[in-house]
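FW: tagging you since you asked about this chain on Friday. Here's the raw sequence from the shared folder, copied in full. Didn't touch anything.
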Amino acid sequence: MSEKPNWHALFEKRSTWVAVAAAGAALLVALVAIVPSVHKPDGPQVQAENALGAVATAQAALKTSRGAYGSYWLSGGDRTLDAGHPIQATGVEDLRSIDCADGWVAAAKIGSDIYLRSSLDDTTTKAGAGEIRRPECITPEAVHSMLSDLGRIDRSPVPGTSPERPAGSSQYRPSYHITPERDWMNDPQRPFFLDGLWHYYYLYNPDYPEGNGTEWYHLTSKDLLTWKDEGVAIHKFRNGLGDIETGSAVVDDENTAGFGKGAVIAVLTQQDQGVQRQSLFYSTDGGYTFSSYGGNPVMDNPGAEHWRDPKIVRDEANGQWVMVLAEGNKLGMYTSTDLKRWNYASGFDRTGLGLLECPDLFQMDLDGDPAKRTWVLAASANGTEEGRTTGVAYWTGTWDGNRFTPADEKHQWLDAGSDFYAAVTWDDPRLTEGQRMQSRQAIAWMNNWDYARKLPTQDWHGGMDSIVRDLRLKTVQGRPTVVSTPSKALARLEGQASTHGPETITPDGTPRLPPVQGGAYRLDLTLERAGTDEGSEARLLLESGGEAFATVGYNFQDGAAFVGREEPAATAADLGAVFTERRAASVSARNGTVDLTVFVDHSSVEVFVDGGEQTLTSLVFPNSGQQSIKLVTGGGNLTVKTLTYAPLSSTR
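HL: got it, structure written out here
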């Protein structure tokens, strides 16, 4: 007889298994709920909100502790805000905040997107999705500049430009560089911004080659790309003191000179019968016309042969104007409170650089750090004793209100090419103070006095101006170095780009290079000496009609970028040895690679090496015919990792 089943025990076991199963199911549900939150990273919006929230916290803390807001730039070296509260920027590629007395605006970059937040709005907005509220003391231009620094480049076409130069343009007439329509040009004068326009002047001689003497020719621009011809602003030989030579113009916002708030004051050299004096001219119509000051000259010559090119800057820390004057192999420092009466403060003597001309003096933050604010003193000079030609030399150091003291007695050069002289630099008054200290812009006369009067141009003379460049002060191989890059605004001139590579470079050439359309274009290339490459020198041949007129290259063995030029064979011009000498700049390859950016414009080549740590600027004179490029080695193989070509529009 079989036993009866124990129903009670069976029920208890079943209940236990049911409970275990239920618990397991609950645990599984919990794990499903938990696992995504543990392993799924925050999206870009959340990461940006967190980073910008950290900026807001730090800004509030700094305002409380110091009574002022602060700046920050993750990739640019500015950590001022960390004094308020250390910033965590997890998941953010770059983070920046600009500030003014009444607030701040910050931006976070994640991938290709940039997110914004300000002191007036605690919401996070994607750039391009709408305007953000900002303090009135931060302009739209300041925000645009910040976004540009984070990689949001304006590429919208510039009104009034065209893919080609105007019909009938002469062979060497550039497309996007400043030249006079006719006659002679040389030294640029520092631009200033007033009433929504940039005002720029250059030395101009309408009587060349028969007559001497220069005057100030005036151009205006909204974008530093396209220019409106305003004619001569300061005429020569009108006040009995001679012609109108190099100087500088300032906007006198506080009426220190007595000609009214906002008057434009130009202090410049006049030369009469070989005697150089400094005169003041003033404008009360925004820089379009000038009057000679009745008390001219404001600085009479003390008996010096060379006494010229006054550069005036505002020294707010000491409540004064400062003038740097070129005095032979010395730079004289003068101070004034009213731009009329000048007192000698000190001298900066240098030998071995020939005759110093066209000085400059300005401040910049080293590596973007306001705690490393540095003064830069520059002058056009002659580098013949160093195996160079003329160019712009500079020193970094300190200014105490009376004297410039260099940090290093040895000078550096702003450009290693043959044709970068009389450079001027400026900042944008629409930017915040921090932005103005982190970057400046520059333009120079693209010519060389060794052959300036021999150029084969027919419809104008004196070369041209360089493109506008962006400057930063960066530590390179342990030294504060002024680094130059093409102005980001030039991207608005670029046509459809094409990218090629990687390709092997051989002594015979490189396959699949892009065809060149016209004589105005940009090239960006990365050269590499790969492990299997046995070559040492890459040469980019710029050709016209099948003949090379210039060679841009890099020698991996020597660690040097270079530019070589050919004489203009189709003309009678004999430009001499200084023109044909190869110019080189020392730049070490990084991990076996080097980056070159090359701007070509019919009769000019400007080369920027490794982000502008070195530059080489040159006039060139190609034969007529279709332009092309060829990439070869001097022996053995090398590699071009990428080569990007973009045609550039004409601004004429």
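FW: Helices lie at 7-39, 44-66, 140-149, 433-438, 577-580.
HL: agreed, and The first strand starts at residue 72 and ends at 73.
FW: great, closing this out.
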